[in-house]
């Protein structure tokens, strides 16, 4: 059973001032991730793609040109990070843990002042999957719960908040996020608590 498709904005502001310098977290789908004008308008400087079945080419001026059996490569128009999650069963919980740290890196990574790192400007972060309804919701909930526990004292509180901000309707909730992804972030949540107890 698939929920009815509803038209919603391509990206939604999920959490304000969650980054170390007051950066915001946005959540969306491929429609937002592929729209450079929208990303610029929202002040987004980094994109975290958590969909294994979606690749986006941000390279505008390749310096590694295509040749026999090799693809072009170069600097992207925006900083991009990739975590390949399946939208359903099949993800080891450790991947959600890795996703938590990947998202943290998108906010906190310090890039050197060198020509080979052209996208150094700090800004907001877009977390996305294909539709912005399941994988990205699960990862965002884990992140919000651990970064701002005073606002999101449980994973469910974070999921409820994201559903409201992302305009996910009650008839979609059975798959936003998928139950297997909720189970995975519950396990990742326990892993994060063990690491915190060890001072890590």
UniProtKB/TrEMBL annotation:
It comes from the Bacteria. Keywords: Hydrolase, Protein phosphatase. The keyword Hydrolase applies. CDD domains: DSP. The keyword Cytoplasm does not apply. Residues 125-166 form the Tyrosine specific protein phosphatases domain. PANTHER family: DUAL SPECIFICITY PROTEIN PHOSPHATASE (PTHR10159), DUAL SPECIFICITY PROTEIN PHOSPHATASE MPK3 (PTHR10159:SF519). This is Dual specificity protein phosphatase. It comes from Pseudaeromonas paramecii.
């Amino acid at each position: 059973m698939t929920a009815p498709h509803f038209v919603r904005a391509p990206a939604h502001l999920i959490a304000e001032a969650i980054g170390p310098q007051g950066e915001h977290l946005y959540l969306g789908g491929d429609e937002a991730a592929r729209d450079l004008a929208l990303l610029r308008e929202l002040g987004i400087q980094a994109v975290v793609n958590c969909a294994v079945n979606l690749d986006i080419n941000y390279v505008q001026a390749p310096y590694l040109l295509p040749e026999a059996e090799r693809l072009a490569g170069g600097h992207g128009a925006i900083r991009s990070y990739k975590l390949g999650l399946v939208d359903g069963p099949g993800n080891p919980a450790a991947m959600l843990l890795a996703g938590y740290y990947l998202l943290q890196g998108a906010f906190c990574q310090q890039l050197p002042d060198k020509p080979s790192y052209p996208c150094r400007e700090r800004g907001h972060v877009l977390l996305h999957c294909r539709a912005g309804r399941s994988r990205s919701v699960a990862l965002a909930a884990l992140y919000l719960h651990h970064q701002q526990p005073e606002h999101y004292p449980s994973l469910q509180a974070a999921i409820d908040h994201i559903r409201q901000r992302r305009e996910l309707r009650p008839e979609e909730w059975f798959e936003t996020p998928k139950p297997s992804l909720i189970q995975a972030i519950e396990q990742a949540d326990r892993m994060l608590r063990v690491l915190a107890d060890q001072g890590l």
